[in-house]
Write a structure and sequence with these properties.
CATH architecture of the largest domain: 3-Layer(aba) Sandwich
Radius of gyration: 23 Å
Largest sheet: 9 strands, mixed
CATH topology of the largest domain: Rossmann fold
Helix content: 25-40%
CATH superfamily of the largest domain: Class I glutamine amidotransferase (GATase) domain
CATH class of the largest domain: Alpha Beta
Oligomer: single chain
Number of strands: 13
Number of helices: 11
Amino acid sequence: MRRLLPLFAAVAALSGPVAQAAPAKIRVLYLDQSVGFVHKPVSRPANSNGPTPSEIALAEIAARTGAFTVESTQNARVITPQKLKDVDVLIFYTTGELPISAENWAAVQRWVESGKGGFVGLHSATDTHWDYSGPGQTYTAFINGKFAGHPWTQGTPITVQALGQKAGGGKDPVNTAWPARFTYAEEIYQYSDYDPAKVRALQALDFTDMPLKRPWFVPVTWTRQIGQGRLFHTSLGHTPSTWNDPLYRAQILDAVRWTAHRKPGAAKPNPDEQALWALRSLLAYDGRPKAEIEARLTRLAKADPAWLSNAAARTAALRPLWPAKPDSDKAPFDTAYKAVLDEVVAKSGG
């Protein structure tokens, strides 16, 4: 037997390492149906049933990376319990009241909660809703936000900052596609029905050096754990030019891989950090110098978490008070804004 051992070793050396089966590609179903406003990335060519710019982009990402396959549709009715058996990740770039039955929406929620499926919402996915009173959550509660206007319209200069920065500049693995801080030109949504305690905000608008400011927190990207499943949403993606940006494409790839449990990344909510960002927005809107804002936030980080949460909620409550028209009565907003600003200034050193 001892004489045979070298022979076995030689055969093993010639045959090389045992080949490992490659993981199956992630199966993506992309819904880009518009029942409301139709964005250019989801518009079909004139007088044609050809693919939309975003469908083309997703197909190119899939072909280039080999990470997933993608089937695109503009008919939400195809999302059934039977269809979900052949899908790993749902991507929505949608608007309006989608034709999804209560039975099918309940099935989507069970599919995500079980960990068998992941969900990715892009740009206008929060401008989507339909009547639902069945088990689980409404779509708005599920994605954790509803479109409440976009002061930052197409081409508006914005500054996006990553949250959750670690010592040395490290970022969460699911938030590495973009630089930690960058300027861009995009249409960015603000939200109603947004609960910071349910999600982990990954990117937000930083008003300290933006011309168009608001005194409340505006998240750009977030993740959420729902049962064993994962949800990712980003406000980016309004224009075909964004879809052609390699950084945005990398973000989509990361989102697909993360929601399919093929990439590490956190979804633990960070409401305290979001609260500080809300107060950052408040102070920036007041025109405070950036150095002063940073110093005040350092002090506010040590404040009672309950107070911090309440102060942030009061800034969020300013949004519906914002005058609908330039000649609207601004007094209710001004009164509420000054009250919370004065308290935050006093709490952070006067």
